[in-house]
Amino acid sequence: MLLLKYLRNFLILCIVVEIYLYNFLNLSQICNVKNQFTFLSPVSLTALELSAKLLPGIERVELFTKSEQGIDFKLFTLVDGEMSGSNLSKKNQADFESIARQTKNMAWFSLSELPQNTQPNISSGNLFDELQKSVLAIKIQNTPSGTADLFLFYFRSNASEFGPILSDNVLDTGHKIFAGRLIYNNIKALFEQLVDNQFALVNYNLQISNMLKIHKQQLDEKDRMITQYQHQLRRIIESAISGYSSHSLQFSPYVITYLTENFVDIEHLQKQIEGAVNFAKTLSFGSGDLVLNIDIHHFIDYHNNTELKPEAKIADELDSYDAQTKVYQFLEILEKAAIKLLAKGEKLTSVNIGSIMDHPVTAAAISDKLKNHSRKVVSLLNQYPEKWSTIRNHFKPISNIQERVADAKIAS
Question: Residue 233: what pLDDT?
Answer without folding.
Answer: 84
